[in-house]
Write a structure and sequence with these properties.
3 helices; 21% helix; three-stranded antiparallel sheet; globular; six-stranded antiparallel sheet; 11 strands
């Protein structure tokens, strides 16, 4: 079975204030699969905008711990679809603004990410064609997720 590598890079969204409209500064993570941005792959496949933050965000330890537990399958997914949120609204983190999610499965020695979708919590998830599935070696996956959660 071919496995992919999972790493991450910083995803920085600068803050701004213009004409009474404030945009929050966010420092989060972007997952890299085989050294390629997963966010870029998803937004390209979906034809979407790129204003998202990763599920691990600097300064938010409790939500980061919860995302960590979900991606390691120690906690249930937060969506009705059973998918885990990977990229969320950079202003509020709410699924209602739109998010990218993934089904995570585990067997003895691997984790697999498949069935990527765009979700908003009130419409049927929109499956993203042409991205994934990706399979990761268990110990490398656990290390990458734990490292990313420590942002």
């Amino acid at each position: 079975m071919d496995t992919s590598s999972l790493t991450f890079q910083q995803l920085f969204r600068p803050g701004s204030c213009s004409n009474g409209c404030t945009v929050a500064e966010r420092c989060s993570i972007d997952f890299l699969i085989d050294e390629r941005s997963l966010l870029n792959a998803l937004i390209t496949a979906a034809g979407d905008h790129s204003d998202y933050m990763g599920c691990f965000v600097k300064g938010f330890p409790e939500p980061n711990n919860l995302s960590n537990s979900r991606l390691l399958l120690c906690e249930h997914a937060e969506t009705e679809s059973g998918r885990i949120l990977l990229y969320i609204c950079p202003e509020c983190g709410d699924i209602g603004c739109g998010s990218y999610s993934v089904h995570v499965r585990q067997n003895d020695d691997c984790f697999t990410w498949d069935s990527f979708a765009y979700e908003n919590g009130y419409e049927e998830p929109l499956i993203i064609e042409g991205v994934g599935p990706f399979t990761f070696e268990k110990h490398a996956y656990e290390a990458a997720i734990n490292d990313a959660a420590g942002i």
